[in-house]
Amino acid sequence: xxxxxxxxxxxxxxxxxxxxxxxxxxxxxxxxxxxxxxxxxxxxxxxxxxxxxxxxxxxxxxxxxxxxxxxxxxxxxxxxxxxxxxxxxxxxxxxxxxxxxxxxxxxxxxxxxxxxxxxxxxxxxxxxxxxxxxxxxxxxxxxxxxxxxxxxxxxxxxxxxxxxxxxxxxxxxxxxxxxxxxxxxxxxxxxxxxxxxxxxxxxxxxxxxxxxxxxxxxxxxxxxxxxxxxxxxxxxxxxxxxxxxxxxxxxxxxxxxxxxxxxxxxxxxxxxxxxxxxxxxxxxxxxxxxxxxxxxxxxxxxxxxxxxxxxxxxxxxxxxxxxxxxxxxxxxxxxxxxxxxxxxxxxxxxxxxxxxxxxxxxxxxxxxxxxxxxxx
Length: 376
What we know:
Number of domains: 3
CATH topology of the largest domain: Jelly Rolls
Number of strands: 19
Structural class: alpha+beta
CATH superfamily of the largest domain: Cupin
Largest sheet: 8 strands, antiparallel
CATH class of the largest domain: Mainly Beta
Distance between the termini: 21 Å
Helix content: 25-40%
Radius of gyration: 26 Å
């Protein structure tokens, strides 16, 4: 599924004209959005999954409620567990007007895990997903703004938003199927109607920004230079002119260090960080671990939904960035790996450039790493 197209309409127009610049409201497929996080899914998480804080928090009238009002303690095998949701208390507070906030849903709700991974693959920035369940006639948070870009979409009920953007303050009526994009720093608040609860999901885009990238480059260049770790002189301001001269010399030195930075290597490092620290997508991997020992030349395999793979050649080695880890293989298996990545459903016999034993070994490895899954 092209989640960016679902949330923004035309992805090319969004990325070129809208992203980071102005608010966008878009009507998408209602059933598809509801399938990502429905009222029934929210009920299941609250009442049967034994979630713990900070996976869930509650807010009412612009204030976050103390977790002691809706959590309990328990023990398992003699070990204490704290911060467990007390479903009865949560439901009572919800009925009394509190908003239930599900945080970091990409970590424990599979449809949103897949949405986040797909968005990250398309836009190249880290993302996260929260959801807000608000009872009728209530408001969870006062007027506020976020420090990151946000996609929000309604999956149940309606909500009246007040958005302050370049066009001034304006209302936005959110109903099931409505998506809205808010650039960083856009003030907003929302309230549900009087007749029904509201459930909406927000996908936060934690954008890489130049200041952070450059700060990291500068800090690492400075920390690697032992001369820049020496103390400033005693009597620090006795001779301001000498101190200013010394500072100018070191600024020139730092400029020289930065002039030696390999920009290609820095981009490579940033790509490696992004390509190895995402939330893993491993649904069904337990069954694959049990099946992989019986893999045969005619076993049908396919790419695991939500998986990603960035292929890079490094001399005599091949790197696969799999989202949550880096896999290193001999460069000679490059054609075989590419044939796997280009295929839909395949068997080890379809792998190019390797004999049967080599193809089986490669496929077993890629199943264990979560890139491939067994078709059952």
